[in-house]
Task: structure prediction
Amino acid sequence: ISVFDVLDRILETVTDPALFPNLETVVVAGFSAGGQTVNRYAIAGRFEGTLPYERDFHLRYMVLSPSSYLYFSPERDADGDGIFTIPEGGCSEYNDWGYGMESLFSYPSGTGETTMREQYPKRFVFYLVGGNDNNPADPSLATGCESMLQGPHRVARAEIYFNHLVE
Result:
């Protein structure tokens, strides 16, 4: 069972009108590694499309200071110059699940790449990163090649990811 299955179950429970009849808003939030999880769940999560009952509530996703992001295409802009290209050499798994849309494990594979691409723009996802979170030597910063292809630190990675989303 994946963490995404667990999130689906939690959301099914808290949005059950028999349990919480006055619920208006649910926020799924995560910081750092939790932010990475929320970023990926906002893209691949199935809950919103499988509500077992009619319910009027708002679902929001808060992605806070993740160390990496899930990209929809294989192009990256590692140096932040605004030019997205396919990276050359040395990091063959940079576009695998967690960083990109290849080698999906069972949950995102069950959602499907087409559905992920279609549902994500309809979701309310907020990305927050501290302006001073720009230390490339931060010991909690992911420094594998897959992450480094997304930028040198969290602020740069957030800015580059934003450009990826709007292109």
